[in-house]
């Protein structure tokens, strides 16, 4: 019996692949986009927060430019993506507005998520949009990336977005019913895997490359994306985007497609990820109240609890939190630079704007970005 992971999840990332958003490569399949908008609206009504990662810019751009075959030159592909992204954003805005939902366009590169400052900015923007009830629609920023800084495929991008916002589930919709024991286009005896763990060594061998002209990564990139998503504790569901009401049925707990389970829950995985990735740049000494708030109450660190700032750090970098005896009690990603922190320390959050002229965040270190040692 497979687990109803989407039913239990509150925050999810849904990825729809090239093979689904385009009409056999001829522009966008507006009817399909409308179906996802309707389903996302319905699962939103069930209390879930949804971020959509959608491909389709190149296909729509080619249609708008009247190009019959995919160009080989990178600059032409980028030009097509730039033209097509307009249509993709427009099409989603129209489809979602039928349900009273607003959409926002977010274009990301790999660099944006490996740079701590931009990572925090991307995270804050997406979380702010979710709080406002807006559907963020994400694609790769094809204009500024090539070769080594490309995500390469949107499966990978969607997994990084799941890490970024601590989604509990990544849903990858594609043109197959899920992960099969081998590529079903090539082997008619292949059977569907209903559920396994991402750490199952057999799954990589089962997954092959893209089976169509339009898709790029194939099942291989979906399995890799599931492994990446699992690093922050997100489970992955791979299912057919063509199955009737697929998202709604998954959200009701129906077992459809393939479920690739992460080995640890979001909260634990996030802490491990943070502990692994933190290279400490400076430190803040906390007063007794802040030490208690972090250790005993699991709260975020507010500027008011900081007694002293040591060293130099920028927004998004890692700092040590010390108690008054100099013992390190926690580490986390800081929302303000050392210079800014010196100005706002010992002040209530209501004073941040008056002192700095802006508010990046009310917490100095949010508890989700903090590891207590
Ligand atoms: N083990 C497998 N199970 C299912 N599909 C597979 C497998 N191995 C390779 N594939 C191929 O992966 C394709 C889906 O990937 P892709 O074309 O990149 O889709 P998308 O555009 O949705 O990302 C399928 O059409 C299928 O031919
Ligand atoms: N960013 C590009 C392509 C991304 C892409 O093809 O990814 P995938 O859907 O994983 O095959 C686009 O919007 O056309």
Any overview of this molecule?
With 373 residues, the protein is α/β, with parallel strands linked by helices. It folds into 2 domains: 5-270, Carbamate kinase, CATH 3.40.1160; 278-372, Archaeosine Trna-guanine Transglycosylase, Chain: A, domain 4, CATH 2.30.130. The protein contains 15 helices and 13 strands. The strands form 2 sheets. Strands 3-4-2-1-5-7-8-6 form an 8-stranded mixed β-sheet, with helices on both faces. Helix 3 crosses helix 5 (74-97), helix 4 (57-65) crosses helix 5 and helix 8 runs parallel beside helix 10. The structure holds adenosine-5'-diphosphate (ADP) and the ligand N[C@@H](CCC(=O)OP(=O)(O)O)C(=O)O. The site of adenosine-5'-diphosphate has 24 residues, from helix 2 and helix 10. Residues 17-20, 174-176, 179-180, 182-185, 206-208, 210-212, 215-219 line the site of adenosine-5'-diphosphate (ADP).
Named once each, the bound ligands are: adenosine-5'-diphosphate, ligand VHF
Mean pLDDT: 90
Radius of gyration: 22 Å
Remind me, CATH topology of the largest domain? Answer: Carbamate kinase
User: Roughly how many Å apart are the termini?
Assistant: 38 Å
Strand content: 15-25%
Q: What quaternary form is this?
A: single chain
CATH-defined superfamily of the largest domain? Acetylglutamate kinase-like
Uncertain ranges: none
Number of strands: 13
CATH architecture of the largest domain: 3-Layer(aba) Sandwich
- Helix count equals 15
The top level CATH class name of the largest domain: Alpha Beta
Summarize the helix and strand pattern as letters. Answer: HEHHEHHEHHEHEEHHEHEHEHEEEHHE
Query: How would a crystallographer describe the biggest sheet?
Result: 8 strands, mixed
Helix share, percent: 25-40%
Q: So what's the overall shape?
A: globular
EC number: 2.7.2.11
Main location: cytoplasm
Enzyme class: transferase
Subcellular location: Cytoplasm
């Amino acid at each position: 019996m497979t687990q109803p992971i989407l039913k239990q999840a509150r925050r999810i990332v849904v990825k729809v692949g090239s093979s689904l958003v385009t009409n056999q490569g001829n522009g966008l399949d507006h009817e399909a986009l409308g179906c996802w908008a309707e389903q996302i609206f319905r699962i939103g009504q069930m209390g879930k927060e949804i971020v959509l990662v959608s491909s389709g810019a190149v296909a729509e751009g080619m249609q708008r430019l009247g190009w019959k075959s995919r160009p080989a030159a990178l600059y032409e592909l980028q030009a097509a993506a730039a033209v097509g992204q307009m249509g993709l954003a427009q099409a989603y805005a129209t489809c979602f507005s039928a349900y009273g939902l607003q959409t926002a366009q977010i274009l990301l590169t790999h660099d944006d998520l490996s740079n701590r400052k931009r990572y925090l900015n991307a995270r804050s923007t997406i979380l702010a949009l979710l709080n406002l009830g807006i559907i963020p629609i994400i694609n790769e920023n094809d204009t500024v990336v090539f070769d080594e800084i490309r995500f390469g495929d949107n499966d990978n991008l969607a997994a990084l977005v799941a890490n970024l916002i601590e989604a509990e589930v990544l849903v990858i919709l594609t043109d197959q019913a899920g992960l099969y024991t081998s590529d079903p286009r090539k082997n008619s005896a292949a059977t569907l895997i209903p559920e396994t763990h991402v750490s199952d060594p057999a799954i990589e061998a089962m997954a092959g490359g893209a089976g169509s002209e339009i898709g790029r990564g194939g099942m291989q990139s979906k399995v890799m994306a599931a492994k990446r998503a699992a690093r922050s504790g997100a489970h992955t569901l791979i299912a057919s985007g063509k199955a009737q009401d697929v998202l709604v049925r998954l959200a009701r707990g129906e077992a459809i497609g393939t479920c690739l389970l992460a080995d640890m829950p979001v909260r634990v995985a996030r802490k491990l990820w943070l502990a692994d990735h933190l290279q400490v740049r400076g430190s803040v000494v906390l007063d007794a109240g802040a030490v208690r708030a972090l250790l005993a109450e699991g709260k975020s660190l507010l500027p008011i609890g900081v007694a002293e700032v040591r060293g130099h750090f920028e927004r998004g970098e890692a700092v040590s939190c010390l108690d008054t005896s100099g013992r390190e009690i926690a580490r986390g990603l800081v929302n303000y630079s050392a210079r800014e922190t010196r100005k706002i320390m010992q002040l209530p959050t209501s004073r941040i704007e008056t002192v700095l002229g802006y508010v990046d965040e009310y917490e100095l270190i949010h508890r989700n970005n903090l590891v207590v040692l």
